[in-house]
Amino acid sequence: MRADREAALTALYSDFTALNMEGGWHRRFPALWPEPRRNFLPHVWHYADVKPILDRAGELIDTQQAERRNLTMFNPVEGNIYSTVRTIVAAYQMIRPGETARAHRHTPNALRLILEGHGTSTVVDGKQVEMRPGDVLLTPNWAWHSHSNDGAEQCYWMDFLDVPLVHLLEPMFYEPHPDGLEQAVEQLEQAPIAFRWEDTLAHFEAEQARLGPNVPLTIELGPAQLDTIALHMLRIGAGQTTAPVQTTANAVFAVVQGNGVAEIDGERHPWSFGDTIAVPAWRAHSIHAQSDAVLLRVSDEPVMRKLGWLRSRQP
Questions:
Q1: Bridge partners for 120 per DSSP
Q2: Cβ(134)–Cβ(157) under 8 Å?
Q3: In what order do the strands lie in the sheet with 293-299?
């Protein structure tokens, strides 16, 4: 009797497996678990290591060969070849004097944090603004955008895009500009897409006056925002540490100034100017500054909040 039942079960499993189906009562891998799994890994990319490689690439790769001379940071989790964290990819980019990156548009949202160099500007949907160190500039989805360096210095910045999220959901569209560049361009000193470094500093000072001294600060950049990406600037004084937090939001931190250590799941990760820190979802983390520091936090909080999945707790 038992042998007959086992034979019948084997035949049953074979029949629905042949139809690309699986019985919920005997899954090889669970579909639900009590809290987020730890898949992507905490990791730090050091700008001091990357900049010389970008410089070498600048000598070998021109804008005809690569429209954007960038180096993407892929998380070292096994099997991953692109994403920095699950929903966000970060990259370092450099543009040399006299170069222009042609215009294109795509459904992924993008932004950039300028690290070094003067004389570079971006054009987004016909609006041209200069990009200066410490500035953060937005490129909303499906907006035409190009970059050009009319100065005498090589310019370096960090890009952040929600391309991995678009890959997961699949609404990917990309289009190069038919003319190479937008023809009707208006030059602006200020624009909603450009968060100026001096304005960020002024916002910090106002927040410090409100909260008092010796308190790490977090401000949200806005009012202009991207639908899928939240941007926060953190100012942490020398010797200060942010409160530990564990959140379902994936985050990438970029160091605007200073140096210190990020503690992620009990492991210490040193960082300094220009470095990139990947903090995947549900990883307990805090940030300690050894010198006065400012960091940009790029996260998928808007996605998690809109879907009712944003949860945070102090570990």
A1: 131, 149
A2: no
A3: 43-45, 276-279, 251-257, 293-299, 230-236, 217-220
Do 179 and 96 fall within a single domain?
yes
Cis previous bond, 213, omega within 30: no
Considering the domain architecture, whether residues 185 and 266 belong to the same structural domain is answered as: no
Domain enclosing residue 218, as ranges: 197-313
Structure-derived torsion over alpha carbons of residues 40, 171, 89, 178, reported in degrees to the nearest 10: 160
190/227 same-domain check: no
Q: What is the mean pLDDT of the chain?
A: 95
Task: Report DSSP letters for 203-249, one per residue.
Answer: HHHHHHHHH-SS--EEEE--SS--SS-EEEEEEE-TT-BPPPBEESS
Residue with tokens 């990259």: 91
In angstroms, the CA 182 to CA 189 distance is 19
- Backbone φ, ψ for residue 22 (5° rounding): -135, 140
- Going by pLDDT thresholds of 50, 70 and 90, the confidence category of residue 250 is very high
**Are 68 and 151 members of one domain?**
yes
For the chain, the farthest-separated pair of C-alpha atoms sits apart, in whole angstroms, at 86
For residue range 116-147, list pLDDT tens digits in order: 999 999 999 999 999 999 999 999 999 999 99
Residue 26 has pLDDT above 90, yes or no: no
Average of per-residue pLDDT across 221-238: 97
Question: CA 84, 88, 92: angle at the middle one, nearest 5?
Answer: 60
247 and 202 together in one domain: yes
C-alpha closest to that of 294 among 211, 214, 234, 252: 234
Please state the length of the chain.
Answer: 315
Whether 273 contacts 255, CB under 8 Å: yes
CATH number at residue 82: 2.60.120.10
